[in-house]
Amino acid sequence: MKITFWSPLHGQTATTSNMLAISLFTGMYFKKKTLITHTHFNFNNLEAPLVEINSKSKNAENYFQGVGIDGLLRNFKASLPDKEMLENCCISFPNTNVNLLPGTVKNIREAYENEMEMIAPTLFEKIEEFTDILFIDASSGNNPLSKKLIDISDLTVINLCQSMSVLDNYFSLFPSFVQGKVFYLFGNYDSRSKYNIKNIQRKYRQINSSNSGVIPYNIAFKDSLTDGTVIDFIRDNINCSKTDENYIYINRVRSAAERILIKAGMNTIDDEGE
Hints:
Layout: E1 2-6, H1 15-28, E2 34-38, H2 48-51, H3 60-63, H4 68-76, H5 83-89, E3 91-93, E4 98-101, H6 109-127, E5 133-137, H7 144-152, E6 155-160, H8 164-173, E7 182-189, H9 197-203, E8 212-216, H10 219-227, H11 230-237, H12 247-264
Parallel strand pairs: 1-5, 1-6, 2-4, 2-5, 6-7, 7-8
Antiparallel strand pairs: 3-4
Helix pairs in contact: 1-11, 1-12, 6-7, 10-11
């Protein structure tokens, strides 16, 4: 199963941090084998919250040597990836059910994007054979590669915010960009705003309780992204009590993750526990 996270604009909707929270919850709480990756050439922060270094950091080429999407692309030219090849290109995190396929460390954008546009759809179709869910953080806006990934995904999570101008622009400028199943996710959500989820649903009839969710702003979660300790944050709080200061955040993430999985057509009950 492939779930693509996408936003109509960059930097305002917390797309990457939303996907990190949802994917970690999917692996650690719902016990689904999860693989996460991104297709950005730059301006992405998927790796650092997990391993404290990004694919575009100064020493990234040494740190990610032999792993990541670049390694898969090299091998793909010879043969389709198998399970062993994929595992060798991923970074695994014990006791999480989550694997990371780091992004590119290449320096030539055009060469990378041309290669990805040709290969990525077939590559990701093959990768999903070896995991329960493949989460893809796609480039924002009207990006050709993102469009291809959206078209082959089982579900597209459209990341938005509580700005009416952003919502108006999305529904006016991207009416047919995303086909198929969609889920609307509002990151850095503030329930005190008059533009809360209920009022947004009233104004935009395309958004309803079954196809939308929110992830509140949480300073402890944000700090964990910066510190590279996001896995520890989720693990430490995943079963927190209702009196805990992080409960509202965790509860909202749990709810959004469950709705996303159900919308994509996946059973959220752990088969081993049935």
